Amino acid sequence: MTVDPFTPTRRLLYADYSVLCSCPDGTVSDDPEGLYDHDTRVLSLRRLKVDGHEPTFVSSSTLGPDRCLTTLIAKQSGGEAEGPRLPQDAIEVRIETRVGPGMHERITLINRTMVELRPDVRLEIDGDFADIAEVGRDRLQKGTTTRTWVDRRGFELVYRAASGERAVERGVRMWAVASLPASRRGVRTLSWRPALEPGATWIADLTVEILIDGTWRGPRPATDRDHEVDACRSSRPVVQSEPAGLGDIADRAIEDLFALRNRELDGDSATSWVPNAGVPMYTGVFGRDTLTAGWQSALLGPQISRGALSLLAATQATEDVPFRDEEPGKLLHEMRRGPLSELAIRPHRAYYGSQTTPAIFVLTLSELWHWTGDTEALRRHRDTAMRALEWAAELGDRDGDGFLESVTRSPNGLRNQGWKDSNEAIRYPDGRNVEAPVATVEEQAFHIL
Predict the structure, then answer these.
(1) Could you tell me if residue 2 is inside a domain?
(2) Structural domain for 437, as ranges
């Protein structure tokens, strides 16, 4: 395969739980492309064709982490040098995309020829509702998808699956507003045939809504998000440096961190908020990552620390559930919302296989107090911190040798539950994996702190 270093092969747009991974022209067709929401691929196909062909990619401009402007051309055949149709005749296609929650697209066609055109415009849409952990791998959960044609404007796909007593429902609804109604071509294609005079423009506004937990969620008004970004920029610290490039690096880091904010976790609080751990794979709650982002960015303000502490305190373990590596006093490692987690095929709906989170919770609470002097926060989270320390002293050191060690009790749990938590992360010098229980030096340091 030839790699073009000047043209990225994938494009990412993201906001809250929504992530769009596509080709530079906006096409979604091959793994790992898709529109993801709550760890579920709700759109696995999105392909635009004009007169039976995919338009040619020209350029794509990223306007923010959640939006972009793409320009394509749909070449017209049959032109001659004498005209009126010319060999270079084409329709310009502009696509404005913004995600979160769901997605909004504005498709604009401009007739750049000297003759009237009636292009056949088709948009193919489909969703496979794969868990993000299944993309490119074997499918572990299977359900049924109901497809409904919605009022000559779009499609609605609703996916339902069950495993034992657990069930999950996810859906996607795509509808279009244009100067003429859409026609249906098969079970997954919308089509239009607009009349375009020379220089004329035709616009279709497409809205993608997502069904999560019985509620349809659509894109937030663009002005609301723009105001949030403006408010963040106006209130954040200004880094002045010599050379000035150091300040530019700090500004970029602040922008990137704010772009990870997940408003569906923090409830749009003015005093606290919670970032995703990363995109595209790690949207949602990841205990130690969220806490670490809070105390390491304390110079910018206490909002992330406050959001992380409150969220993890609310989900502190109270039961002994081996499947989730849950023990009283432990704090959350990760919370996934995809079908595999919702159906309990995997334990990550609320998974507690981490030694690090309890220690980092106490550290973050200490850092919050040192930066703000907020004694009320100390009182509010004292019991959570004490239960976390008690877990470390008792259940975290089962053999009483003074070292915190980990061993999973879940068939799908993490072999290593320290900072480096991949199954092959902890090895002897000769390359052999260290077998559980494992006590790593960094975990001892975290708890001694």
Answers:
(1) no
(2) 260-448
CATH of the domain at 138: 2.70.98.40
Residue 60 CA to residue 25 CA, distance in Å, equals 7
pLDDT of 162 higher than 80: yes
The answer as to whether 254 is a domain residue is no
Long-range Cβ contacts of 172-175 (<8 Å, 24+ apart): 172/35, 172/42, 172/43, 172/102, 172/127, 172/208, 172/209, 172/210, 172/211, 173/208, 173/209, 173/211, 173/216, 174/125, 174/206, 174/207, 174/208, 174/209, 175/150, 175/151, 175/206, 175/207
Q: In this structure, what token pair is assigned to residue 12?
A: 């990412």
Cβ pair 237, 250 in contact under 8 A:
no
Handedness of CA 315, 316, 317, 318 (dihedral sign): negative
Please report whether residue 140 resides in a domain.
Answer: yes
pLDDT in tens, 48-86: 999 999 999 999 999 999 999 999 999 998 877 777 777
Number of structural domains the chain divides into: 2
**Residue with the larger pLDDT of the pair 224 and 21:** 21
**Domain check: are 267 and 206 in the same one?**
no
pLDDT beyond 70 at 171: yes
- Helix, strand, or coil here: 189? strand
Place 1 in a pLDDT band, splitting at 50, 70 and 90: very low
State the pLDDT at residue 7: 63
Pairing of strands 183-185, 189-192: antiparallel
pLDDT bucket at 414, cuts 50 / 70 / 90:
very high
How far is 204 from 182, CA to CA, in rounded Å? 10
Residues 79-112: tens digit of each pLDDT: 777 777 777 889 999 999 999 999 999 999 999 9
- Do 40 and 144 share a domain, yes or no? yes
- Residue 225 or 158, more confident: 158
Confirm whether 324 is domain-assigned: yes
pLDDT tens digit sequence for 261-281:
999 998 666 789 999 999 999
CA separation for the pair 209, 225 (Å, rounded)? 17
Q: What are the tokens at 403? A: 């070292």
Q: Do residues 80 and 139 share a domain? A: yes
Do residues 165 and 291 both lie within one domain? no
Instruction: Indicate if 202 and 296 belong to the same structural domain.
Output: no
From 166, 122, 134, 176, select the one nearest 34 (Cα to Cα): 134
Region for 174 from its dihedrals, namely left if φ exceeds 0, alpha if ψ lies in -120 to 50, beta otherwise: beta
Cα 99 from chain centroid (whole Å): 10
- 268 in the same domain as 170: no
Quote the pLDDT of residue 268.
61
Strands (E), 3-83: 11-15, 18-22, 34-37, 40-43, 45-50, 56-64, 67-75
